[in-house]
Write the structure tokens for this entry.
Amino acid sequence: QFDYMRFHESMNENRVILDPEISKTEIITEFTQYICENLKKEGVKVSADVFGAVILSDLDASIVGQDFKAISKYLDYICPMIYPSHYAEGTFGIDYPHCNAYEMILKTLKLGQNKINEDGEKRAVIRPWLQDFTLKNLEPYLEYGPKEIRDQIKGAYDAGVEEWLFWNAGGNYTEEGLKAE
């Protein structure tokens, strides 16, 4: 699993010189194709993490070079980091995305599924990273716990996604959220 195949957000024309004839998304897509074709020859399944924002925003995709649909053509699994706390207020018309975990996960994954399935080509399985942490600087404050964990899992399943991962930088996971109520 590749943990990010991207350009850093600060990699603009003042910090890096790129061929003007090729975009960041083309570079990352070509790298993804190359690495996947070579690893798959050895029987290796390939997955990569991407920013969740690249599902919603072509601008964000062009900045970091992650074209969700294009790279999903080569990967076995694509793992968008779709943490509700990382969306701007008003995304999908939701004032406080971090307080609406189910709806944010459901809508993001449905959009992602639509993007990669619109042309009928075989694409990667979406296996999202979900949030098992609290961002303490968000208002209104919401401590993420078992309910928010279950809400995200339900959102994934309701969007037709059968696999998921959770992220907590400290490795402190909410086991109660993985148990049925």
Summary: Residues 24-41 form the longest helix (18 residues).
